[in-house]
Amino acid sequence: MEEPTTLVSDEDLVDSLPAIDDERIQLEDPEFETDPFLLGFEDTIRLGCCCPAKEEEVTTEKTKKTTTRDRVQAFHLRKSLNLLDKLHEEKDLFIQKTRGELRVCHQRMDLLTKQQESLAAEIAAEREANNMAALGRLQAASRRLHTELENEKDLQSKITAMLKDSENAMWHIEIQKGQFEDVRKRNEEEAEARLRSLEIHAAQQLQKEKETLEKVERNRLLRARKSLHVQKELGLRHQKLVEDAQRNHKIAVKFLKASLGRVREQEQKEEMESRKHMKRRMDAVLALKNNITASRETLKKFQAWGQSRAEVAKQKALTEKEAILAQGGDAFKHLFHQRRHQELEAQKRAFEEDQKLRKQEIVSRILKEEAEEEHRKKRQQQPSKTTDQWTLRDKTWKYISDFCEGKTAITTNHLLENEMALHPKPSCLLKVISSESMQMDLGSISTEEEILAEPDIPGLWSKDYKSYQVSKEDMERKPVGGTKMDKDILARTMEQLRSGVVHKQVVSGREFKGRPFNSKPEVIHFKDFDIGKVYKKKITLINATYTINYCKLVGVEESLKDFIHIDFDPPGPMSAGMSCEVLVTFKPMINKDLEGNVSFLAQTGGFSVPLKCSTKKCSLSLDKELIDFGSYVVGETTSRIITLTNVGGLGTRFKFLLDSEFFEMEEHQPIMKMSSVFTYEDKSLYEKIINSLSEQQLDVDGSSPLDIPSRKESEKLDEAEVTAVASAMTMVPSEEQAEITLGEVTEGEIGPFSSIKVPIIFNPVIPGEVQTKFKVMFKNSQCPTLYFRATGIAVDVPVWVPRATVDLKICMYDRLYQDSITVHTRSKAALRLKFEVCKELRGHIELLPETGYIQAQSSYSVQLKFLPRYSLPEDAGKYFDQDSRVLEAPMTIWVADQIKPVGFTVQAIVTTSDLEISPLEISFGYCTIYEAIRTEISLSNLSLLPQEFGFVGLPKYVDIQPNDGFGTILPLETLQLDVIFQPIKAKEYRFELVCKSEINRCFKVSCQAVGVHPPLELSHYQIKFSATALYGTTVSTLYVINSHLSMNKLTHSLPRIGSEEATPVGPTSFEFLVPPNSPITISPSVGTVLPGKRCLVQVAFQPVLPHEIILEEAIHILNKETETKLFRKETTQRKEQWKQSLPVVRVHNRDRPTRASTPHTQELQRQELSASSNEYQAAQATLARTFQGKFDRFVVPCVIASGDIKDRKASEPLSFSPYNTLYLELWCPVVAPSIVVTSNEGKTVVNFGDIAVGHRGIRKITLQNISPEDLDVSLSRTHYRMNPPFPLSSGCGWRASPKKGLRPGSSFQSSLPPMSRGLKLLKVSHQILLKGAAREHMMFVEGGDPLDVPVESLTVIPAFDPEHREARSPPPEAEEMKPILVTLNYVQFDTDIPTPPATRELQVGCIRTTQPSPRKTVEFSLDSIPWLQHKGFSIEPSRGSVERGQTKTISISWVPPADFDPDHPLMVSTLLQLRGDVKETYKVIFVAYVVAGL
Predict the structure, then answer these.
(1) pLDDT at residue 1292 tops 50
(2) What are phi and psi of 1038, to 5 degrees?
(3) What is the CB-side half-sphere exposure of residue 916 using CA atoms within 13 A?
(4) CA atoms within 13 A on the CB side of 1443
(5) Are the C-beta atoms of residues 570 and 554 closer than 8 Å to each other?
């Protein structure tokens, strides 16, 4: 209760204010801040106004003379006036509140007095009944009421005194307000004067702004005219340039055609010559392929012959070995002797051949000397030959060339000399050797070969030459290796010696196995030797055994004895790890690779050291296979070095040339010398022949056989010519390949173990990428051709941008996007760069910095800033596509001292970030607080990017779904959102819905509505009927409540429409407006409800089939019956008249009536049919059987009017307000009936007619179950009479069989005996068990043990009824907790079986209600979980949330703890809190027992 405020006088208020200086007042008081401003503009106001008012002049003069003290006093007065107004409002509100409390106090006192009277009557009644328990309870209640009545009287006296004091204070305040009324008026006049001054100044400012705007518009028009003039001049200049360019182009085309004609003629001539030459070369290649094929076949034959011989020898050795083993001999010894014998025989043959060769050499030398002597004598006698006479080498090569070309060989010397005279110069031989030439070379080994030409040195070629005959004594001489017996004796001797020398070495129980001596180096290798020189190498042998060992030289292999000499002094016994040296001397006699072993014998066994002798070879390689010049400006020249390295001991001649070029390395070796190679009897004879052929083969795949000059095709060739050129040439170099050339050094000699550096020069001429292939050919046929490539890129200027197009992807308006542009230079000097944006986009794109210096051969970075404005489509012009929203902006980089700039393009797709909401204004109209209005809005994304959105800051009475108004909208997508408005009180609503995007852009929707609080309310605004069978009835009840009891707006909200006057307290009428032709019946549909009362209303739902549908079905049945009768009649007539003639039949058929009924006939049938007709009832039964079910939803408005309907006349209507309308929503599902009547054509009415009393009439009724399930059927009866109903005297009138139930498709019969007069009807009903619970809030808890209070208890009954509970609700901290008892019985068995814990469950649920609620889930939590666990309780889950329409189970289990006493039950409690639309607290009491099991 508030205390009265103490009155404050004006003087006290002025004195209580602190001292304020002038500056402080001027800063704080906005009224005085405008004073200097008004003084400064006084002259301006006088000049601008022609006829100023006198009142304004007086006000201005007074303002000038106002002193500081006057302003302070005025400020204090205004402050006092404001304080008095505030005190007046507070006192007025306090007095109203006090009066309301006084009225409530009077009502409570009246109520308590009535309760005392009723209790006194009950006490008197109970005292007479001698019910002491009830008497004591009533007396206690009487005492409590008396105490409360005394308290209410005291409270009434206090409130009355307080109200009186407040009214006195209010009078004083009003008196003071009257004293300051003059001051208030004066302040208002001053404020009006200041306002007029400000309006005059604003008008002057507006005039100045208009003049400035006109000046700006004139300037803009001048600039536009100037720009149009400049554009016109530029257009004329551009047109002139285009005409000059076209004229020059025509002249250039004329000269170009003439030049191309001459070039084409020259190319055709070269093409014809190249084709002829190519044909000759292709013939040579085909001949070479045939020769190679023949040579390969011959080689394969020799290889197969060698393999067969090796297999025969191997098989023979195996056979001998098996035979020796079968005889019991030593096969290894025999094989060793045999191999030794073969070696000795080979040595013998080699020695004999050497002797023969030496003899032949001696004879050849003698003959050569004699021939030279004779030739010298002939030369002295004959005149000298001409200088141009051919040598033997030239003659031989000429003969081979002619033979390859198919010419006939001339064998006589006379013809050969004539042919040579005609061709004084020797012809070069192509790198082709036919099969005939190879056969000729092989035949040169034989002595029967045909003489080709006269030799320069006579001797063996002379006819008088006699072959040397070896003497018989030399032929019969003993071989060098000894006889076979000598070899066997030598082998047996060596075996005995080795068996005595070699033995196992065992040290400390370990036997040595492996190589006894290690050699350093491991291989004796003589590289790159020369014939005739002596080479020496030392090797070191190290004892690798466990103890002392010996080493003895065995020797080298037979093939190396003529070239290798070993110097080795046996060192005697050598300890483990000791070493000795061996000197190996190599004296090469032949130029051939040699391989073998140097054998030694140790005490533990023999070992050998590998020995290799390698001839000089060429090993050539390039340091790189790809030369990348990078990017260079057109006109610059650069070079790269490629190194050719020879790591072999043999030099050769090399030549660098293009891959497309063809070159023949000179062969200085004559054919006779080459043929002399075949005199050696070596096993690699045929391999050398094939190698010589393969070296001379043309490289058809790697290079072109022709050196055709490069050219550029200017027009398309004929198809035949293109085919011929493609088959003749494998590669035609392009003009760009001439930009990469070789340096000065392209050929020469490379020595052994040396390198040559060759420069490759790149001189770009045309911008673009250039690639050229080169090859390196060698004179040595053993060296393969090496290939490498050179690439480079020619650019126009030294400055370039790697990214020609900067793609910024998708951008939004008014958003900043940045990127870095890197500029490179290859220049060797610093350059000044200027970055320029096209003038159309300078307001949107910026390059920073605008000018910069790039250092030599480095890079420079510039920042690109793109901020697209909404004016971009108009500003960009041709650079922006309106349809695709693509921006392609050219950027320019100007380089100092360079005419051609560097350009790049900035590309972006510019899109808006707008979200469009439709409609922008929403009017919900009038809406009651008991309903919600839903409307739909469209949210469209006009951007090409997805955007996140959300409606923020929504009022409590507005909800947006789905997802509470949050989500992501895809590009160019439109979402439909529902806006739900439910007012919480009656007033006018004006608010805005704010939608924010992810970039913090706001889009607003204006909304307005009027909240209505009707004087009546419904207990339910939605009724969901259960599934009702056709022609069945379902009834539901609701209440119309009038809770408007008083006009005190402080205690509760008053019924009203928006901000209008509140509805007066009194009877209020209602009327339900049921839709026509609906199966809904509301009773009563019209009524009046008094204040504080409620009216019961029943809503019945009885679905029936529409009358029109039944009529159509009945007419269809009638038509069908008529057609059947006509068909039978016609059939009978045909049987009677079948003997008549055909024309008569035709006439009869033409004249017969039609079956189809006309519309006029259908209308007559509709009028004849009635609801009681048989056809109508049959149609109704048929449609009922085939009914599939449906669902209807009805909304029934309930209009409200003030007053009682009884007070109105019959013709005078009530003044119903369209805004005070309640709406009842009905959900009506209809299903097909489970049981139908099949007897009497489906009629549901059985008419027994008139039956005399005492007689009996029987009618059979057949019922059929058309549902898919079994049904339990019970019959009940209802009696009616024509006048008033009469009671049923006997219940045995109906008999049904079967009585229990019906299966699907079954039927039963019933009969009715007339027990009394009257009309009896049969009614079949089904019993359905319905269970439900009503909750005050959306959350609930189920489970636990019931807690019921006995009727005759001494529990104190509340002193006020539930209707007044809301007016005196206790504070939140005094809220009563609801108890829940949970009992757990732990069963303990005597056996060793483990006992399961005692378990119980609680269910926490959330109701899916149609009433609006701020929360969508219910949260629950249990306290003191650790303490409960200590007592043996386990609760899962202890906290969680429940969705609407769902329940969650809380499982409780208990196991007795160790300190539990079985004689005393355990009792603990905890708090269960539920948070939904309100907060509820339950006290859960756990009682645990231990029960002994069986």
Answers:
(1) no
(2) -150, 170
(3) 10
(4) 1
(5) no
Q: Which of 32, 128, 16 is nearest to 72 (CA)?
A: 32
What is the C-alpha separation between 144 and 115, in angstroms, rounded?
11
Residues 6+ apart with CB under 8 A from 1347: 1379, 1381
The residue type found at 459 is G
Length of the chain: 1494
Examine the pLDDT at 728 and tell me if it is beyond 50. Answer: no
| 678 CA to centre of own chain | 76
What average pLDDT score do residues 1289-1293 get? 42
Helix and strand totals (H; E) in the chain: 23, 65
pLDDT score, position 426: 38
DSSP 8-class letter at 1444: T
The pLDDT value given to residue 1208: 66
Task: Report pLDDT digits (tens) over 1397-1445.
Answer: 889 999 999 988 777 677 778 899 998 888 888 888 999 998 999 988 8
Q: Where are the alpha helices (DSSP H) in 849-979?
A: 872-876
**259: which 2 tokens?**
């030049």
pLDDT per position as a tens digit, 1058-1090:
888 888 888 899 999 999 888 999 999 899 999
- Residue 6, burial from CB neighbour count under 10 angstroms (0-12, 13-18, 19+): exposed
CB 1280: neighbour CB atoms within 10 A?
12
Residues 676-686 have a mean pLDDT of 37
SS3 1417: strand
- How far apart CA 565 and CA 381 sit, in angstroms, is 54
In the prediction, which pLDDT does 435 show? 34
Instruction: Give the rounded distance of the alpha carbon of 1246 from its chain centre.
Output: 73
Residue burial 1459-1476, b: 16+ Cβ < 10 Å; e: rest: ebeeeeebebbbebebeb
Tell me if the bond preceding 1084 is cis, omega within 30° of 0: yes
Give 390's pLDDT tier (boundaries 50, 70, 90): low
Question: Could you tell me the end-to-end alpha-carbon distance of the chain, in angstroms, rounded to an integer?
Answer: 68
The dihedral region occupied by 752, where left means phi > 0, alpha psi between -120 and 50, and beta the remainder, is: beta
Contacts (Cβ under 8 Å, ≥6 apart) of 843:
869, 871, 875
Residue 1125 tokens read as 């009768």
Averaged pLDDT for residues 1045-1052: 81
Whole-angstrom Cα distance, residue 1005 to residue 993?
A: 5
Query: What was the pLDDT predicted at 1171?
Result: 64
Cβ neighbours of residue 452 closer than 8 Å, sequence gap 6 or more: 395, 396, 399, 411
SS3 label, residue 390: coil
Torsion angle (degrees, nearest 10) of CA 159, 165, 168, 173: -100
Evaluate if residue 1368 carries a pLDDT over 70.
no
User: Side chain identity at 51, as an amino acid letter?
Assistant: C
Q: Which amino acid is at 574?
A: M
795 has pLDDT over 70:
yes
- Please check whether residue 619 is in contact with residue 646, taking contact to mean a CB–CB distance below 8 angstroms: yes
| Structural contact between residues 611 and 584, judged by C-beta atoms closer than 8 angstroms | yes
Q: What residue type is 1238 in one-letter code?
A: T
1259 forms bridges with which residues in the sheet? none
In terms of C-beta distances under 8 Å and separation of at least 24 residues, what long-range contacts does 1206-1214 make, across chains too? Answer: 1206/1088, 1214/1069, 1214/1071
Q: How confident is the model at residue 68 (pLDDT cuts 50, 70, 90)?
A: confident
Neighbours of 1356 (CB within 10 A): 10
Read off the pLDDT of residues 1321-1364 as tens digits, 9 standing for 90 and up.
Answer: 334 444 566 666 777 788 889 888 877 544 433 334 343 333 33
The pair of three-digit structure tokens given for residue 387, joined into one six-digit string: 């200088």
Name the nearest CA neighbour of 487 among 272, 339, 670. 339
pLDDT higher than threshold 80 for residue 713: no
How many Å apart are CA 1122 and CA 1140, to the nearest integer? 27
115, 1359 in Cβ contact below 8 A? yes
Under DSSP, is residue 794 helix (H, G, I), strand (E, B) or coil? Answer: strand
Identify which of 927, 893, 696, 703 has the alpha carbon closest to the alpha carbon of residue 801. Answer: 893
